[in-house]
Amino acid sequence: MTESSRPARKQVLLRLDPAVHDALATWAAGELRSTNAQIEYLLRRALAEAGRMPSAVRPIPRRGRPAKEPPPEAE
């Protein structure tokens, strides 16, 4: 499935206590994630631990540079 054929991701407005946001942002930076990605990661983890993760959920899309392909093997 190409990126253009994927359904749009849902956008939500989230109001957080500033101290909670700062803690999330610091945690996210330590794990090299955006604050938004950290929130999604934590929500997915909570759903999985509670046994409430829907079966139709796809993995979080990988961002950034694609992985390097290994060099072709010499024959």
UniProtKB/TrEMBL annotation:
Official protein name in the record: Toxin-antitoxin system HicB family antitoxin
Gene Ontology biological process terms from the UniProt entry: regulation of DNA-templated transcription
SUPFAM superfamilies documented for this protein: Ribbon-helix-helix
InterPro entries: Arc_rbn_hlx_hlx, Ribbon_hlx_hlx
Renumbered residue ranges of the record's region Disordered: 52-75
Origin species: Actinacidiphila reveromycinica
Comp. bias regions, Basic and acidic residues: 66-75
